[in-house]
Amino acid sequence: MATSFLETPIEYLKGVGTARADMLKKELNLKTFGELLTYFPFRYIDRSKFYRIDEIKDDSSYIQLKAKMVRIQMVGAPHHQRLVATIRDESGEIDLIWFQGVKWVLEMLTPQQEYIVFGKPTLFNGRWNIAHPDLEIPTTQPLPLSETVRPIYNSTEKLKSKGLDFKGIGKLVKNLLLNEKFAIPENLTSEILQNLRLINRQEAFVNIHYPQSYDLLKKAQTRLKFEELFFIQLRLTKQRSGRLLKLDGHKFLKIGNYVNQFYHHHLTFELTNAQKRVIREIRADLGSGHQMNRLLQGDVGSGKTLVALMTMLIALDNDYQSCLMAPTEILARQHFNTISLMLTGLNVTVKLLTGTSKSAERRAILAGLKEGDVQLLIGTHALIEENVQFRHLGLVVIDEQHRFGVAQRAKLWEKNIITPHILVMTATPIPRTLAMTFYGDLDTSVIDEMPPGRKAIVTRHVYEPDHGKIFNFIREKIREGRQVYIVYPLIQESETLDLKNLNDGYQHIVTEFPAPQYAVSMVHGQMKQQEKEAEMKRFLENKTQIMVATTVIEVGVDIPNASVMIIENAERFGLSQLHQLRGRVGRGSDQSYCILISRYELSAEARKRIATMVRTTDGFEIAETDLQIRGPGDLQGTQQSGILDLRIADLVKDEKILKYARNVATEIIQNDPGLSKNENAILARHLLLMDRNQQNWGLIS
Ligand code: ADP
Ligand code: MG
Predict the structure, then answer these.
(1) Are residues 347 and 463 in the same domain?
(2) Whose C-alpha lies nearest to ligand 1, atom 18?
(3) For ligand 2, a single-atom ion, which residues have Cβ within 5 Å?
(4) Does residue 268 form part of some domain?
């Protein structure tokens, strides 16, 4: 098959050739015409607008000046000469500097000539200058708009050395647009184009690179953002509808003895309204005959585990087994203990299976599972890695979802002819727009209400010189019988530095809180899992009063007696991390505290993160703020998804377009779940192309 225009290898483009093609591939992963075409400008410069020299105040962006060249000098030792040209406008002067190609540039420059200068100012020795700027002589003729708006592309040092700075890349794109075979097939139906008044695909690609007008630039952006988000949504809704159309879920219609007894005789408190609502949502899924695939979100302590337990009891009432997977052994054990306790007297056989289970015990459990005697299994990923077979597994609950890889989860499903119902629980709140994209194929339930009577955690921000006061506060709390966490940041670049940071902290704490009066624990990421868990256990059993740790303690061990969370260098933590850490306290009946210690001097972002923590304990509000500060790429658990590798759309700014895209996709799939109708052939073809190129979420075909 002849390759299409867009699939043509990039080396065949005018101006590229093999060397540059190699470089483009290595540096920007651009291999084809199509990929270059979706390498969008990250901003545009209006060439009819000029800065005044005295307006330069930050070095963050490219600017354009119009000024006269008043001085040209060679500076420095003979072999390290640089060229410095000073330009002046009515507001001031600035130096232009060349380190390379000095002789050649010198020949080109004309003293007293007025230039249009384009470049990125930097501050050096208190003076602004622009290194290797672009120079042009102003023309008297007005430029057509298509040449007035200049696209700016990201480049790299290596590419620049091959002449591919933003301008060089722009030239390549232009060559592409001017290629005689240039033709972009439409991939949206004319109905969508008309209804949403979107411009066609070819026009959009031309105008995103070389806008004919600002209006067309805007339209091109809207069209391409829509396209990008729409195909993600179309795929997700198609997958979800495919799952719902298959009538192969276990049907749990009965509410029987287990649920009723537990609910009426064992539960010592009233469910919150949010818990009741979520249980209704889950029951509807379980009775539908389709497989449930539900994400349960709720802040730490909002009562997710209880909802999971009720769900497992529904499975039991319908004669099915359940299992609950936790990310660590200690968490699995904790779940096992609480759940066993809550089920006392209900005559349910609950077992715990982890990597350290003794072999005799393991054999007994495995036999029991196969026979169906073991009704409820709790464990770590040993549940999927071992040769575990159930008699009839009906439900899988996964706690703290982001610790489990998708592949690990998939293993579980392979075990069964009929896929069990799945409930994924997470305490990492996910903003709406992200959930729509990241979990678009899952149904979502949210517990947005805390059980009554919880005392809100008191959060304070203090500065490092206040350590003395904090230590006194810790002593007081320990005297009252409480326990304390002290967390140090990870310094990601260096594991050794990391450990040093923590060790220094530990030494300091041990000096302040000496034995035998005090006992201090320490855990960090470089300890073996078993050592870590043993140390956590000492703390859990109140054999130590202070736990010095890195963020390894972020995930869910419940130690109600620990009521103080101290976070050192709080400015170094991300917002959702701070929130997770704070969630370690506030689990008992005592007033809990979270103290964020930082330097005086803080970046605007760090200040905002800390202020947000002090202001609110609402995980969703925190997640939204986090998304706004950082953008989606950094959010926990999303890094490797690839889903967020968006080329043009922005999940924060384009929420409205995302909603349109989702609605349109939903409507289409409702009317044509398999995308098999003639009118939707164009959409089906594009999805197929995306698969074929294994560029699942990319734009281009
Ligand atoms: P999560 O799993 O969401 O962190 P849990 O289910 O572990 O929360 O619940 C935290 C604590 O709150 C547990 O001790 C649990 O027994 C208790 N709890 C749960 N639901 C309620 C409720 N409706 N009223 C009072 N206490 C509750
Ligand atoms: Mg929990």
Answers:
(1) no
(2) 303
(3) 556
(4) yes
Q: Please count the structural domains in the chain.
A: 4
Neighbours of 580 (CB within 10 A): 22
CB 309 less than 6 A from any atom of ligand 1: no
Which CATH number covers residue 362? Answer: 3.40.50.300
Q: Given the CA of residue 556, which atom of ligand 1 is nearest to it?
A: 4
CA of 309 to the centre of ligand 1 (A): 11
Residue 505 lies in a domain: yes
Does 429 contact ligand 1 (Cβ within 6 A)? no
- Among 593, 616, 639, the domain boundary falls at 616
**Closest to 151 (Cα-Cα) out of 172, 122, 178:** 172
Is residue 532 within 8 Å of residue 489, measured between CB atoms?
no
Picking from 72-86, 248-262, 485-499, which range would have the lowest pLDDT averaged per residue?
485-499
Residue 271 CB less than 6 A away from ligand 1: yes
Tell me the CA end-to-end span of the chain in Å, nearest whole number: 15
**What is the position in ligand 1's atom list of the atom closest to the CA of 298?**
3
Tell me: pLDDT of 653 over 90.
no
Domain with 6 in it: 1-46+153-183
pLDDT at site 642: 40
Q: What confidence score (pLDDT) does residue 85 get?
A: 95
Q: 3-state SS of the chain: helix, strand, coil percent to 5?
A: 45, 20, 35
Q: Is 305 in the pocket of ligand 1 (CB under 6 A)?
A: yes
Strands laid side by side in the 546-549 sheet: 458-463, 593-598, 562-567, 483-487, 546-549, 520-523
Query: Is residue 563 in contact with ligand 1, taking CB distance under 6 Å?
Result: no
Task: Determine the Cα–Cα distance for residues 547 and 509; give it in Å rounded to an integer.
Answer: 10
